[in-house]
Amino acid sequence: GTGLGSSGSFTTALLKALHAHRRRHLSPEQLAALACHVEIDILGEPIGKQDQYAAAFGGLSSFTFNQDDTVDVRPLNISDDTLYDLEDNLMLFFTGYSRSAGKILKDQQTKSIQNDEEMLKNLHNVKRLGFESKNALESGDTRMFGELMHEHWENKKQRSGGMTNSKIDKWYNIAMTNRAIGGK
Apex CA 75: angle with CA 136 and CA 152, to 5°? Predict the structure, then answer.
């Protein structure tokens, strides 16, 4: 319920630990696919695969989720200076709030299946932002990356009323008026 991919990270770590206990090695690809199978196929969670793949591979990577259910993973080509800039400027805050990602994603999935024009437009925009974020990071433009994070947050809030609340919006606005470039 943190909105930070905690269930995907937990499932991935648990599966890795169980396999390590039995002295069985899983590649990151196998681990991610198994974690997705548990959460999506067995538990029926209406989620994507990005959190499990991010947890299994680690680092900063680009993921392409293909229509044939395969996933292409490519580490981003980021300079050390860009990594240091991100480390020096990214901040993480605990809001004290939790939300049901499953409920929000179920609504998103239903609207997508029904070809809801606004939802599909929003999701295509997220895809565009992903490509632009990758390009910004690989070119070392962390300011642009921050601006894209802000645009992504504004876009994401349009998909569901449960994405934020007045308190989180207030904190976000305080950060933006104090020279934050973006956030989510």
Answer: 40
Based on the residue annotation, tell me whether 51 is a catalytic residue of this protein. Answer: yes
Interval 142-158: pLDDT, tens: 999 999 999 999 998 88
Instruction: Tell me the two tokens of residue 160.
Output: 């569901």
Q: What is residue 58's three-state secondary structure?
A: coil
Residue 72 main-chain phi, psi, to 5 deg: -95, 130
Q: What is the value of pTM for the model shown?
A: 0.86
Are residues 55 and 8 in contact, defined by beta-carbon separation less than 8 angstroms?
Answer: yes
Helix axes 142-157, 117-138, angle to 10 degrees: 170
**Enclosing H/E stretch for 30:** helix 28-36
User: Is residue 132 helix, strand or coil?
Assistant: helix
The distance between the two most distant Cα atoms of the chain, rounded to a whole number of Å, is 52
User: To the nearest whole number, what is the mean pLDDT of the chain?
Assistant: 91
CA distance 98 to 2: 5
Digit-coded pLDDT (tens) for 75-86? 999 999 999 999
Q: Which of 41, 51, 69, 107 is catalytic?
A: 51
The structure tokens 């990602």 sit at 101
Q: Residue 150 has which token pair?
A: 């802000």
